[in-house]
Design goal:
98 residues, alpha+beta, two-stranded antiparallel ribbon, 15% helix, 48% strand
Amino acid sequence: MAIKKTKSEAKDHEIKVTRAKQFSNNDNIGFDVIINDVKILGCILIQGENEKGEYSFVSFPSHKAEKDGETVYYPYATVKLSANDQKEIEKQIEAMLE
């Protein structure tokens, strides 16, 4: 029996940011979050600007390794976030840092 992979849309999750701290050397913010009763420590909200404009995304915790002479990162945990999830995380972080 073959398992068929299907692309799924990101669904909204129950989210609670429990800690947020602005890094002193850049615009990124470290935070911990509870998503659907699972606590994930060591996430980073990456923020910046490029030729397309401002951007931000959530980076989940990972560890660095070498594979075939290349540096790769393997995530400890990851969640497919919807656009609403991303906005909710940013809103909660902003409220904590005020």
